[in-house]
Each structure stands twice: as C-alpha cells, then as structure tokens.
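The authors assume throughout that readers already know how a fold can be written as discrete tokens. For illustration, here is how one protein appears when written out as sequence plus structure tokens.
>
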Amino acid sequence: MREAPSEVDLAIFGNIVNANGDVLKDAWLSVHEGKIVGISLGKPSARATHDAAGRLLLPGFVDAHVHMRSSVDEGITATTYAAAAGGVTTVIDMPFDAPDRPVLTAADLMQKASDVANEALVDVALYATIAPRGDLASIRELAHAGAAGFKVSTLEVDPRRFPRLTDDRLVEAFQEIARTGLPVAAHQENQEIVDGWQRRFGASGGTDPLTHALSRPPVAEAEAAGRLLEFAYWTGARLHMVHGTIPRTFHLINWNRDLGVNATGETCIHYLLLNQEALRSLGGRAKCNPPLRTSEDCASLWPMLEAGEIDFVTSDHSPYPLNRKDTGDIFTAHAGLPGVETLGPLLYSEGVSKGLISMKTFVRALASGPARTFGLAHKGGIQVGLDADIVIFDPAEEWSVSAAHMQTKVGWSPFEGMQVTGKVKSTYVRGKRVFHEGQLVGDPGHGRFVRPSAGPERKADVEESR
C-alpha cells in the first residue's frame, strides 16, 4: 500500500462507523484520489474539508438488487440519482431490461457498461443472464467481460426478457457458472403452483388486490428455494437467493449452508416493513413478486437479520408509473416498487433506531455483506485502501417520506407518509460529493462500471485493471 500524501484532497470530520458497527467519535477521514487513505483523531492537511460534527460517517450503501431499466420510464440516470439521494453509492443492476433487452452476451454487457459510463451518477455492477436454450459458452465470456453474477428464474415473467429456465437447463447452467466462481442468483417461485392458483382465482372472478398474495402462496417460494439449493449442492455453484419473503426460505438456506452449500440470501426492505394488508390500502402500488406476506412473516425476519441468517437487505427497485400500477385488476398491474432512495434510511429508522438490529448488522446488511458476496473488493466499508464511498448521516433528524421530494421519475412511493428517524445529508462516490443537503450536486457520467475481483475467471481481468 502506498504511503499517504502529506496533503490529501479531502478530509471529513465526524463520527466514523467501522465494519463492526463501532463508532470512532470526532475523527478525521482522509481521502485522496478517490480512495480512503487515513483515519485519525488529528486534523490532516487537506485541500478541502467537510465538517460533519455530530453526524455518522457510514460506508456507502451497496444495493445489490436494482432494475434500472425494468421500465423505459425510469432508466440509468434517474435510478442513480435516486440512489445518490438515498446514500447508495453502488448498485448491482439486474439484466432484464425493457422492452426486450436481456443481457445475454458479452457484447450486451459491454454496451450496458458503456451506457453506465455516460449516464450513471453512482457506481454500477452488472448482472448477466442466460437464454432458455442454446450454447452456454456465453457464461465464460460474460465472466471475462466483468459480470458480477448471473440471474436466473424458476418463474416466467416474459418469454424473451425474463424467461423461466427449466430444471435441466438450470443444472447445466449451474455447472458452468460454478467454474467462473461467480454467484448465480435466483428468483424462487414454483411456476406450476403460481399458474394453477392464479387460474383458480381468475375463474372465480377474484381481482381484489389481496388475491395477488393469496394466489402466490409461501409454498411456491419455499419449494423453489429448496430445489435451487439442491442444484447448488450437486453442482458446487455459489447460490444467492434473492428477495426472500418468509422465514422458511432462510431456514432452508442456513440448513444447506451448514451442510457445506455455498449459499447466501437477501430480503428486501418492503418485506420487512409492509405486509399483505398493504395491498388493501395501496392496491397495485403494493404489488411485487414474490408478494407481500403476513405481519407475522415481517416480524420474524428481523431477528433472523440480526442473527446473520439473512445476509443483507436490498430494495428490488423496479419502478413503474401509476398508469401501470393503478389498473383496477390486480392481475394486470405491473409488479415492482421504487425503493433504492429509501432503503438505507428506512432500515436505520425501523431497525437500528427501534433496537431491532445493531449498527453492526446495519453496516453488514447494506455495505459489507453485498460487497463481499459479489466480489466488490474496493466497496462496502470505511477502511484505508477502499474507495471513498461515504454517507454522512444524521441519526436524529426526523422526516416523512414524500414522493414529491424524491428523485425517482415515477412520482410515488409505497412508503408515502411514513415517519423516519435518520437522514442522508451527503453522499460521496470515490471522494466526489454527488448529493448534499437535499440537492444533487454531481453529474451523469461520474458513475463507473464496477467489475468484481473474485472468481478464477476474473484474475487476469483484475490484474489488468489495476
């Protein structure tokens, strides 16, 4: 590691939070050429300073489940603006882009990476996916091109953009992905159960919003989760289970992990805070897949998160305009919620400030956990040598969620009116301030495409990029 310069680019004063959740009060964080180069009690010589006395200096949040292009109404710039306002300095974006642009080849990935370089305000890592049929040589090529992982689904949303992979195809793909060392992430719902139950509700004329949750029962999620874990066991693939909604999913993950399966799992902020009764009050605005569950399920996830049985928390940010949500028929409403902007503040407010989780769990759930899982070695913590991705956070400020003051283009939030304790005051991405006191102060193009540094297929690429 190179020696710290006598004068740094930036020094920030505040209460620095490390990976263990410990707070070093009244300390200085030194930043030079986009990296953290020092942590000290004495004031360093710096070209610029930021006094954040009394506020927390947190590692930039890593939202590992974002759909920047699930709708043509949103896009890279709007999503990363919202991320910056919420303290998210790195997003990991899903590969199912609208209207018909799945990331299936190295060329697809590099084109999207080029778009990120022109349009993003924060850093972006990219998932790739796999076609239902054809040669799997693309897996190795996508790994070399810098994919952070591969997303697959046991449930079909769209036959081209978001297809279901059959079990034999999944096993074959898991074998190939295992050779790259990258994670394979899976949407876990049983197609036959969901299709059959939705037909049953449809035949009886059920279009009430609550029928969305009832027609996708917990067994559909748990069965698919167990099946995917078996595939990981027999192939040696690294499995990451996305958007788990029920304790049973995480019981299965942890039981298999105890048996040697390399598995991780995430839940989403809406599964911690909203239950299926929100469908009654919000209608299609509360529709997501898998669906919202019972209040008992919500309450049961918090202690599992604190115990480390849930690895991290994401937003599954997938916003749609209201004309695609408020349809009057829950089965025709689009599934997806805006959330990247509220992820960090809500998890702090409902978790840390209410004593449900510790600061250590908060940092793991939003920074070190996703960074480690996806091999983002320079992200996820406040430590000398890491990227200077910093969130200045006021843990005491109280405010309420209002879509009118948010960055997402769709103009609504499922958390509208929720009272929040703790607010993002400034966001730095690699030492550059991109958000400050309610205002975006960075420009599209500051964000970079981030390649993982983990996995045997990545070694040559990592060395080349240094």
